[in-house]
């Protein structure tokens, strides 16, 4: 499927209600790191991003930070076409401080509010194909187009929805016994 803003908005709009439906009524046992575990807070020294052990709570915080500082902010940098269209580096771990102590219900509400605001901005832009080819400079990846940035926003959501499901499934990794053989999510 080729990139399409309206189709992208469909997917981006689906994430907040999907996360609310999946996580909204769950106990902390499902969404936060296990008691005494700092596993989700550790970045592997050889990895640019270590998020495999993040728990659903961490991921919702990460999505909030992206809504505040990444997608629309970077799109504006591209669209402004200033002399230096370099993006501000994204702090992939800001959620550990920013979300600390907040209830998950509050994070889900904040994410939904920010996403709605950002989608409203995206809808109002009505960008042309030529504008979607405008470039910005990613601090690690180099030149990227607005089209690539917006497509990445959609896939980023889907990646983290999968990550949430995997983190939750791993809670019962040993409990499923021999059925583990049939459950590909437990082989992630």
Describe the fold and architecture.
Strand 1 (135-138) and strand 2 (142-145) form a beta hairpin. The chain has helices at 5-23, 28-31, 56-69, 71-80, 95-98, 104-125, 129-132, 146-170, and strands spanning 135-138, 142-145. Residues 38-51 have low confidence and may be disordered. It is mainly alpha-helical. The chain starts with a helix and ends in an 18-residue tail after the last helix. It has 8 helices and 2 strands. It has a two-stranded antiparallel sheet. Helix 1 packs antiparallel against helix 6 (104-125) and helix 4 (71-80) packs antiparallel against helix 8. The chain has a single domain (5-32, 51-187), classed as Up-down Bundle (Four Helix Bundle (Hemerythrin (Met), subunit A)).
């Amino acid at each position: 499927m080729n990139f399409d803003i309206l189709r992208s908005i469909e997917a981006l709009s689906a994430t907040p209600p999907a996360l609310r439906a999946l996580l909204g009524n769950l106990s902390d046992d499902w969404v936060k790191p296990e008691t005494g575990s700092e596993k989700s807070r550790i970045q592997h020294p050889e990895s640019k991003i270590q998020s495999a052990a993040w728990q659903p709570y961490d991921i919702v915080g990460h999505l909030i930070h992206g809504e505040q500082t990444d997608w629309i902010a970077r799109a504006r940098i591209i669209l402004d076409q200033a002399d230096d269209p370099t993006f501000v580096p994204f702090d992939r771990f800001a959620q550990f401080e920013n979300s600390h102590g907040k209830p998950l219900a509050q994070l889900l509400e904040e994410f939904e509010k920010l996403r709605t605001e950002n989608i409203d901005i995206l809808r109002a832009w009505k960008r042309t194909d030529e504008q979607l080819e405008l470039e910005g400079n990613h601090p690690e990846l180099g030149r990227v187009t607005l089209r690539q940035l917006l497509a990445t926003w959609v896939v980023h959501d889907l990646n983290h929805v999968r990550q949430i499901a995997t983190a939750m499934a791993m809670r019962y990794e040993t409990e499923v016994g021999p059925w583990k053989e049939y459950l590909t999510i437990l082989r992630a």
